[in-house]
Design brief:
The complex is a heterodimer. Chain A is mainly α. Chain A has 18 helices and two strands. Chain A has a domain at 265-484. Chain B is mainly alpha-helical. Classes of the chains: A mainly alpha, B mainly alpha. Chain A binds chain B through residues 67, 132, 135-136, 139, 142-143, 146-147, 150, 155, 158-159, 161-162, 165-166, 169-170, 172-173, 176-177, 179-181, 183-184, 187, and chain B through 8, 11, 15, 19, 22-23, 28, 31-32, 35, 38-39, 41-43, 45-46, 48-49, 59, 61-62, 65, 68-69, 72-73, 75-76, 79-80, 83-84, 86-87, 90-91, 94.
Chain lengths: 484, 97
Amino acid sequence: MTGPDWLTLSIILPLFGAVAAFILPRAAAGLGLTTVAATTLCVLMMADQVAALGAVTVPLGGWGAPLGIELRADGLSVAMLALTGMVGLLVSVSAIDAFAGDRTARQRQYFWPLWLLLLSGLNGVYLGTDLFNLYVMIEIIALAAVGLTVLGGTREALRAGLDYVYASILGALLFLLGVGLIYLQLGRLDFAGVIAAPPSAAMTAALAVMFVGLALKTALFPLHVWLPAAHANAAAPASALLSGLVVKGALYIVLRLAGYMPALTEDILTLIGLMGAGAVIWGGIQALRAERLKLLVAWSTVAQIGLIFVALARAGERGLSDSWKAAALLILAHGIAKAAMFLAAGRIKDEIGHDRIRDLDRSPIRPTLAQVTFALAAISLIGLPPSLGFIGKWQLMEGAMMAGYWHWVAITMIGTLFSVAYFSRVLAGFLRFDRVRGGPLAEHHGWSGADAAPLILASAAVLLGLAAGPIIAFIDLGAGGAMP
Amino acid sequence: MTPDLIYGAAGLAVFGIGLWGAIALQDRMRRLLGLKLCSVGAGFVLIVGAWREPPAAPDPMPHALVITGIVVMLSATAAALALIRRLHDLEDADDRP
């Protein structure tokens, strides 16, 4: 290939950035922002290459698969990388503001190395084509994500973080066990080898173990129990990264492996769909019952992940041949909108001083811009046109209808109703401030430059739906055909 | 019974014991030790892939994978231990009047 190796750079840059930010804590914010911007630039260059060539493969150190490790970028990889880059960049900008004060000096010091390490791990997952390599990357993601969860240092955050550690390590070890079982049968771990393997009971068992591990890591119902506390108790920028990006890593591996598995039977797909449906309903109920804003947003993540699995399993008749596109769109939509929503929730909490949903309309301060951001993100998560979430749901329902899966369409509708209901609890509070006692609203309307980054993200979540055609065409690049 | 079968079955058994510990136990340290057992079990299963009928040389690849796995698990354990200790300190401070 010609020109610089953007694939390797997009993994190595944040890795070195993380080390540099750890060694030079005073310059961490500057280093961090520069590194994230440079990495995103690499991804854009990569997107250009992929648009021209279809897919780019880099054998690391000149050693090709099956012995060596290859990196591969196609439309879906680049879409995930672009999501990570875009969300990452905007969360970074708002993190500079969120961790600005003296009180958060310690959080500022550790946020940047952890976040850059996380970025390196995520990019590694999206480019990796070797199962063991993916294991190492998801462990890197897990360690960085746990660090981000406990950044605040409160007892609740530490408890949630510890539960997250257990779930995350166990998920990774189940994945590793599956990797071992696959190596026993095939003697190789590259995607091409795994995809070419003839279907067998032993292979199905290995993949099932890996799926359970990944489901635990991505918090698919009923393995979601660790997620709400972990995401709700983290600092706002960390929550945005955890909910918007981290759960997508394991989700992507499922999507990638499932897309190439001919062994997936009707029963397995129905089971996956049912787990997704369980998440949609249970997540919806819990979000309705949540007393705090961030907890509501975290439960909505559980429900949305369920929806993505419903899409993966049931958005199309020919098994997974087309349904992965609906799932991919929903992943992109959720990543952007949920990051925006967590940032907005953090801003609202900062301005009002608490995030009790019941008392949101009693505050003398109106964080107007953060509220608008929250509403825009909710539009995409509910799936109202023209948002990206709408396009994803449309693809899901269209695929399911064409295949005659009417009950799965109904489940999607129920999920939509739930999301309208639980987001309305919050939005209704935003619309009426007449319950304030003791004087008129304060002059200060509670918005500042810190609202810019979340607002851009939320607007993107809504407006990207207008560019859905090119996005769908792009994620299809390099797919369809067999892996090299 | 061939050695690879014994190792494979032992690996799965060790993983199972660890899994039970990590899920069913309450004590934080014991749960972590359960996870450690899981990693040993998964390592066993990987190592079986290296075994060849004696005259043939073993496959070196799984050894490299297991060593990497050990390093990864070491860091994960360290992180979990640090969390447990910090949590312990915080809860101790709460108990004191």
